[in-house]
Every structure is written in C-alpha cells, then in structure tokens.
Amino acid sequence: MYDGNYDLVVLKELVSGMDKIFTVVEVAKEKKVNIGIHYLTGEADIWWNTIKDKLVGPEFTWSKFLDEYRAQVYPVVVQR
Description:
Layout: H1 8-25, H2 32-37, H3 42-55, H4 62-73, H5 76-79
C-alpha cells in the first residue's frame, strides 16, 4: 500500500514491488494501472481520484501513470 508518502525510497520500493508482481503474475499492459491504483491510499488515492478523468484512456499506461505521479511528488531537481 502507498499513502502518498514523499519519501522517494518508499515510492521506489512500491514501484519495484509492483513491477515484480506484474512480472510474476504476467499482468497485461492494459491492466497494470487498474491493479496499481488499488494499492493507493490516503493522499495518493486522493490525487488519483482528482486527476484520473483527464488521464485515463487507451494510451494511458503504467509507465505514464508513474511519470504523472513522479511529477507530482519528486522535486524538480530529482526529476531532472
């Protein structure tokens, strides 16, 4: 579960764990976002519910989800 903690190590661990789950369970690309958002709680879940309508579509992938979330929580210096 991920609550929106701004600790970059915690976020990295979540992403790494989700990627492992996706590989072991052989999750199809189009299902990754739906499964990944299930693990969001607190501020992260609020963020997702606020922006999901403008992002979700056939081209919206797990990678794009992560890009959007990293842009939200990573300082600009870290993003570069």
